[in-house]
Design a protein that fits this description.
By secondary structure, this protein is of the alpha/beta class. The protein has 12 helices and 14 strands.
Length: about 325
């Protein structure tokens, strides 16, 4: 075991899989000699060569188009979009091509690629860098969308994603890259895709979050326990497509109340889908409506006001108070 940050865990996962499987390729803008803008691929080109870890032109559509072709021909490409706000340039390659390939060919071809990308606020980045756009792909059949909240999960989930036979969007929150450390095995291991994790046991309230909002939710849950003696159960989704509704429903049946926390805008995203599924599967176990704690439905703000835009633990705590009063 070693103490790793999340970006170190991502690098270690790529190292493990490049060493294990010669069909794994890593490419994107500046991922080679420079090791990526966050150094997530640092040292990998020197170790595995320019044929397996290489730079691409600044053309997201070309990066993912290349990944699609390679994936269909037996490779396992790991393509990086330098910031997820740039994913619009590759929407057709992801949603119109990779996600449909198994269906389109009646299973003759699969598309085992991983699209890695940093995202998320809290670092005062320029426009188009921090946007939480995972909701675009929650509604895209054929894709997995994975968002780890800690170094251990980041490595295990990334290895699982690379080994999976379908396309995976793998999102890494920038604020988490170096803000926490955890014990991470240095050898290969996997964390199952599509499976949520209960990170805090509770009996009075279910809180569902993913990515950096898991830590915000945990902080609010601890404050709730101190202030009111109310024990909130916090679920880390880990995957927002597909959603592990079984774990969520099991918790809701125990607590009878639920709050969903996300960093993306309010409408039509993962939180909305989670609430819809809770209503479908567990509405008779609820003692009140499921509430969302999210930013407003606006374009992601400029850096000067992003701290007021992103939900913090105080805002989440107010959401808890509201749902407990219903």
């Amino acid at each position: 075991m070693a103490q790793m940050t999340m970006v170190q865990a991502v690098n270690n996962a790529l190292d493990v899989e490049l060493g294990r499987d010669k069909s794994v390729l890593v490419f994107g803008e500046d991922v080679g000699q420079n090791g990526g803008v966050f150094r997530a691929t640092d040292g990998l080109q020197a170790k595995y060569g320019k044929d397996r870890v290489f730079d691409t032109p600044l053309a997201e559509s070309g990066i993912i188009g290349l990944a699609n072709g390679l994936a269909m021909q037996g490779f396992r490409p790991v393509a990086e979009i330098q910031f997820f706000g740039f994913v619009f340039e590759a929407m057709d390659e992801i949603a119109g091509q990779a996600a449909r390939m198994r269906f389109r060919t009646n299973g003759r071809y699969t598309c085992p690629l991983v699209v890695r990308s940093p995202f998320g606020g809290g670092n005062k980045t320029p426009e188009m860098h921090a946007d939480s756009l995972e909701g675009l792909f929650v509604q895209t059949p054929g894709l997995r969308v994975v968002i780890p909240s800690n170094p251990y999960d980041a490595k295990g989930l990334l290895i699982s994603a690379i080994r999976d036979n379908d396309p995976v969007i793998f999102l890494e929150h920038m604020k988490l890259y170096r803000s926490l450390r955890a014990e991470v095995p240095e050898e290969a291991y996997t964390v199952p895709l599509d499976k949520a994790n209960v990170v805090r046991e509770g009996r009075d309230l279910t809180v569902i979050a993913y990515g950096a909002m898991v830590h915000t939710a945990l902080k609010a849950a601890e404050e709730l326990a101190k202030q009111r003696g109310v024990q909130a159960e916090v679920i880390d989704l880990r995957s927002v497509n597909p959603i592990d509704i079984e774990t969520i429903v099991t918790s809701v049946k125990k607590t009878h109340r639920a709050v969903v926390v996300q960093e993306a805008q309010r409408s039509a995203g993962a939180a909305a889908e989670i609430i819809a599924q809770i209503n479908e599967h567990a509405i008779y176990h609820l003692e009140g409506p499921v509430l969302r704690v999210t930013p407003p439905d606006t374009v992601y703000p400029f850096a000067q006001i992003e701290d007021e835009w992103i939900p913090d633990s105080a805002q989440v705590l107010r959401g808890f108070d509201k749902v407990l009063s219903l």
